[in-house]
Design brief:
410 residues; mainly alpha
Length: 410
C-alpha cells in the first residue's frame, strides 16, 4: 500500500514564500546593519550622533506605523502598501555606497529613508502574515518567519565578510562602500520574489474567516499592559549600532582576534542565535503564551553587562549571544501576541499602535543610552538591564488578564 504524501497547506506555503522574501530582504538591511555603526564612525559620526540616529530611525520606522496601519485597515490595500514599503526599504541601502568620506549626515538621511520604508510595509506585511498564521500555530508561524529572516541576516554579514576578506578597495572607506553596493544583489532578488508571491497569493486576507460580528476597535486592558511592557523593554534594549561601535573602539586595532574585516561575523553569530531563539520561543509561546516572553527576557536582560562592562572576548561573545536571544524573542513572540489580542478587521491598527509605542521608546532609549555611553558606561548598563527586567511584571499582568477574559467567554 502506497503512503499518501502529506500536502503542504496553502497558508504554510504562503508563510514560507514570504519568509524567503524576508530572507533576501534581511540579507540586504541586516548586512548593512552589521557594518553600519563602524561605517558611521568612519564618515565622522560620534557615539551620541549614532545613538540619536539609531533611535530616530526607529522612531520614524515605528511611530509612523500607526498611521500606515490605520490606512491599511481603511483601504484594505495590503499588497500595495507592502510592496511600496519594501521598495523604499531595500533600495535605500545600496545608495549608502555613494556617501562621501565625510558624509555622515547624508548616510544618516538614507538610514531614515530606509526606516520610512519599513514604516509603510510593516503593518500591512505583519497583518497579511497574521491572516495565514491564524490558521496555523501562531507562535510557530512567526517563528518560521523569523528563522528565515535570520538566515538572511546571517548570510548578509557573511557575504560582507567575504568581501572584506579579499580587501576590495584602497582603504576601509572604499571597502565599506563596495560592501553596500554588493547588497544591491539581494535587494533586487527581494523585489522579484515579492512580486512572484503576490502573483501566487493575490488575496491573503481570505485565509482567515471574517468575524461573526463587528465590534469597534477598543484596546483591551490586557493589550494596554502588554504595550506598556514592550515599551519599557524597547527603552532598555541597546541597538546593535552602539554595540558595533563599542566593539570597534575596544577590540579592533589591538591584539584582539577582531578586525574590521571580520566584524560582520559577530553580527552573523547573533543572527544565528536569533533564528534558533525565534523557533524555540515561538513554540514555547504556542504552549505557554506570554510567559515565554518572560523567560526570554530573563535570559537576555543582562547582555549589556557582558558586552560593555569587561574587556574580554569570551564575555563579549556571551553578551552578543544573549542579545541575539532577546532579538529572536522580540521578532517571534511580540508579533504573535498582537495576533491573539487584536481581531482581524483592525489588526493593522493594532500592529500600528504596538510598533508606534515600541519605536517611540526605542528612540528615547537609544538616545539616552548613546549619551550615557559617552558619559558613564556603568549607568548605561544599569538603565538597559533594569528596564528589561521592569517590563516583565507587565507581561505577566497582560497574560493573566487575557487568560481571565478567555475563561469568562467559555
Amino acid at each position: 500500500m502506497e503512503k499518501t504524501k502529506k500536502k503542504i497547506s496553502p497558508t504554510l506555503l504562503f508563510l514560507i514564500l514570504f519568509g524567503i522574501v524576508s530572507l533576501f530582504s534581511d540579507m540586504t538591511h541586516e548586512g548593512a546593519a552589521s557594518i553600519q555603526g563602524a561605517y558611521l564612525t568612519l564618515v565622522g559620526a560620534s557615539a551620541t550622533a549614532i545613538g540619536f540616529i539609531s533611535g530616530l530611525g526607529e522612531l520614524v520606522g515605528y511611530s509612523l506605523r500607526y498611521v500606515f496601519g490605520k490606512i491599511t485597515d481603511k483601504t484594505k490595500k495590503y499588497w500595495p502598501m507592502t510592496i511600496i514599503g519594501y521598495l523604499i526599504d531595500i533600495l535605500a541601502v545600496p545608495l549608502l555606497a555613494f556617501v562621501g568620506r565625510n558624509g555622515w549626515i547624508f548616510a544618516c538621511a538614507l538610514l531614515l529613508i530606509q526606516r520610512m520604508g519599513k514604516a509603510i510595509k510593516k503593518p500591512a506585511k505583519d497583518t497579511i502574515m497574521s491572516f495565514a498564521a491564524s490558521q496555523e500555530q501562531v507562535g510557530r508561524s512567526f517563528g518560521i518567519q523569523e528563522m528565515l529572516d535570520q538566515i538572511g541576516a546571517f548570510l548578509g554579514p557573511l557575504l560582507l565578510y567575504l568581501v572584506m576578506l579579499f580587501k576590495f578597495g584602497n582603504d576601509d572607506f572604499e571597502m565599506y562602500s563596495i560592501c553596500f553596493l554588493i547588497l544591491s544583489v539581494p535587494s533586487l532578488i527581494t523585489i522579484v520574489l515579492l512580486f512572484l508571491t503576490k502573483k501566487k497569493f493575490p488575496n491573503p486576507d481570505q485565509f482567515e474567516p471574517e468575524p461573526k460580528e463587528y465590534v469597534p476597535f477598543k484596546m483591551k486592558k490586557s493589550f494596554i499592559f502588554y504595550i506598556i511592557g514592550i515599551s519599557i523593554f524597547a527603552f532598555g534594549f541597546i541597538d546593535y549600532s552602539l554595540v558595533a561601535m563599542h566593539i570597534t573602539r575596544t577590540y579592533v586595532g589591538g591584539n584582539s582576534f577582531i578586525t574590521l574585516e571580520n566584524l560582520p561575523l559577530i553580527y552573523s553569530m547573533a543572527m544565528v542565535i536569533d533564528a534558533f531563539a525565534a523557533i524555540i520561543f515561538g513554540k514555547l509561546y504556542d504552549k505557554f503564551g506570554i510567559i515565554s516572553l518572560v523567560i526570554a527576557s530573563l535570559l537576555s536582560a543582562s547582555f549589556a553587562v557582558f558586552i560593555f562592562a569587561f574587556n574580554s572576548l569570551p564575555l563579549l561573545m556571551i553578551g552578543v549571544a544573549m542579545w541575539g536571544i532577546g532579538m529572536g524573542a522580540q521578532e517571534s513572540i511580540l508579533k504573535a501576541v498582537v495576533t491573539d489580542l487584536v481581531p482581524k478587521y483592525c489588526r493593522a491598527t493594532g500592529y500600528g499602535i504596538f510598533e508606534c509605542s515600541f519605536g517611540i521608546f526605542w528612540f528615547l532609549g537609544s538616545t539616552i543610552l548613546g549619551i550615557l555611553y559617552d558619559t558613564s558606561i556603568t549607568a548605561m548598563i544599569i538603565v538597559s538591564t533594569s528596564s528589561q527586567l521592569i517590563a516583565i511584571p507587565f507581561y505577566i499582568i497582560s497574560y493573566r488578564r487575557n487568560k481571565l477574559i478567555s475563561e469568562q467567554k467559555k
